[in-house]
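Dear support,

I submitted the protein below through the web form. The confirmation email said the job was done, but the results page showed an empty box. After a refresh the structure appeared. I'm attaching both so you can tell me whether what I see now is the final result or a partial one.
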Amino acid sequence: MLVIIATLLAGLGLFFVGLQLLTENLKLLSGRRLRENIAVWTRNPFFGLAWGGLFITITQSAAAATFILIGMLRAGMLGVKQILPILIGMNCFAGIIILVLIFDIKLVVFFLLGITGLVYSRDQAGGVRATAGAAFGIGLLFLGLNTTQTGIAPLAEMPWFEETIAATHGSYMLGLLVGLVLSFLTQSGLAVMILNLAFLNAGLFSIEQSVMIAYGSKLGSSLLTYVLSANLVGESRQVAMFQVYFNVAGALLLVPALYVEVYTGLPLMLALGAAFAEDPAFQLAAINLLFNVVPGIIVFPLVPIISRALARHFPQTAEEQLSKPKFLLDQSGDDPHNAMRLIELEQVRLIEILGHSFEAMRSNNSAARMSLLNDSFQSLGDSIRAAISDLSNQHQLSPVLYERLNGLLNIQHSLETANVEVQSLSRQLTLLQGTGLGERFSMVAVDGIDAILLTFMDVARERSDLDAELLAGMTSEDGMTRVRKAYLAEDESMDANARMQLLAAANHCERLIWLFGDMGSAYRNLGTA
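What the results page shows now:
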């Protein structure tokens, strides 16, 4: 029994390590230029289907692939109408890997692991290393799945397991539940299907029960996507819910069809599987593929209608508009001067998000809006950092341009630090609510810092000497220190906890004042670079 458990754990371990290695190396390969090319290629819906097949083949996880696409959506590289065909293709091609695994590909996997492992282990491999690492991860995935299949087979000979399986004989709905739970817990419908095939080959489940487990694994994947997307709104939610609806629609169509076929003899999916091959494993793989293909064929022509319906139910939010680059998508890779100017324009948009954050602090539902604005800031910030990195890697810049690029990078770091301080200030001011002194301090702090931020924004946009001198004057004085001391002295009955909260909020304000002043000087230097 220990050998079986060890083999199962080894197989699952190899699978998930391979998945992690694959993901990490794909991040190294998926530069901004590749993502931009994907955005161009997927404008044709049929190319979108092909890309969906590639995504699921590489990631081996529908939930993971869905959130990769959501990330590209939030970066402004893909629209919802482009993503929906990709998701359809992803689902349609998801069953192909199961068909491949039915064949004995261990020898091919060993060759793949050997060759890519040798390349990956050589430090001098350079740019080839990431590609080799991704291929090595794919090899580990297949080896893990094959090991898992091998480990399950001996279970069929164990009396206690046979009795357990016998107790579930004929319970198709139980198979659906088992597939759903296992897929949700392992976060991989593919891993569940491998277990399912192994159980079927060992004679532990009937073909009907195995089909229901396959259907359940699809629902479990959708449940996982639904849970992980609970905090998403707008277009991101549209993408996630389409993936959820796709599998749910397939289950609503095909689960009743199985009962109809079993109890009436009407030839449906089981008959199609039997027509495909005599081997039950091939039948299961074929039915699993049809589960995805049948809804895909129905849904694909309806993408424009579905996208409009999703937009009505989950409309785009103002925060989503803020999170998407407006200028970097038109960035010219041949003109570093223009590229830097576009980066500067996007950084001004980050400052605008900080301004919206101070507006949110004045609202009743500040915590929820602050969280959305923080997500927008980080998403746009990631795009800006990627653009700065691409500019540095793709061009041989002059010393003057490198100095300017370094200034932009320093400003980016300061803006990100300022966003952290703004989020911390918001949480601290929330703790001060309920006391008259705390609420008065909150009002003065928010209005005062917001006024400084607006002046800083003018400096970033216009670079006028007058605005820069005004900002320098506003940030050089220790006015916030005097305000903090005045409030602490006003109410000596203030308890120690409230005083510490007020002190913490004031410290966040002081750091923000310093950051805005420092970045104002940096922008002034950029203007003369």
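Response: this is the final, complete result; the empty box was a page-load delay. The mean pLDDT is 80.
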